[in-house]
Amino acid sequence: MSANELMPFEIVNSQAAPHLIFVCDHASNALPPEYGTLGLGPDAFKRHIAYDIGAADVTRAMASAFAAPAVLATYSRLLIDLNRGADDPTLVMKLSDGAIIPGNAKAGFDEIATRIARYYKPYHDAIEAQIARARTASITPVLVSIHSFTPEWRGAKRPWHIGVLWDHKDGRLALPLMAALRQESDLTVGDNQPYAGELENDCMSQHALAHGFVHVLIEIRQDLIGDGAGARKWADRLVPVLHKALAHLNSSPTKDAPMNETTRTEIEAAAFRRLVAHLQARTDVQNIDLMNLAGFCRNCLGDWFKDAAAERGHDVTKDDARARIYGMPQAEWKARYQKDASPEQKAAFEKAHKNHR
Ligand SMILES: [Zn+2]
Fold this sequence. Notes:
By secondary structure, the protein is of the alpha/beta class. 45% of the residues lie in helices and 12% in strands. It folds into 2 domains: 242 residues, Aminopeptidase, CATH 3.40.630.40; 96 residues, SMc04008-like fold (Orthogonal Bundle), CATH 1.10.3340. It is elongated and about 100 Å long.
């Protein structure tokens, strides 16, 4: 790295508790001095091919509002695209809008390896360092990636104000976020628009999907955030929406959904299996104590199993049914764990039976 070079990433609020970690892969249109302009004219650096216009301002404002750390790229995607897997063929773009990028056209294996080592890896390591900080503090972080998109593509206007990009493997935050955004009646919200959010080894799949962390990628249309005022306005607008989505996330997504018959049966069965496992572990608990206290014992559970099976046309013998509860034949359990009943237990048993008759 030459003396004039910056670190390839910038961290905002580096000491803030990393409950939320913001990332902005396409924050900057700058290049390290040794790369000059990659042979491109100055106009190229004002456009989307160099960076996501407005995304850095939105990221900084949101990180500030949430008092959260943010990792922002220092260099342009023209140098290396941080939102790609290291083996992606578009990692270093040779063409942009159909025109050759002279400074990239001849970049071979060695040059790409150099850019990965100097600019790509440190950026991704910086994100992992924030995740490591979270782990040290026993925090499970949520990752939010901020991008922007052009208002037009190949002559067609893009209708969305904002897009939520996500992988169908994990919609824990994307779904409540889209629901919250759609409550804002003036917004057109893209679901995996203008791009699909399932790019293998992109930034969110490397740092969030791979670790199982809740995450989302937000794309905002550039004309809305192209100046500082617009970016601040949109950050102000998104902060409560993201809060709402995060609050929804904390409650189970299926909490309010009606439970279907199969699910209910599975849950009941799971509770029954846990009861049986508990009784198998607690060999100190005697059947006579269960009977005296609660009027049932392991044998009763076995008999209830037998009755339930018979109602459904399954002929399970009494011994088989009881063995399911004991985890072994009843006689074996009795030999191993059953203690002689004390006179007090016997007296209590007599009394309990009398009361139940
Ligand atoms: Zn982007």
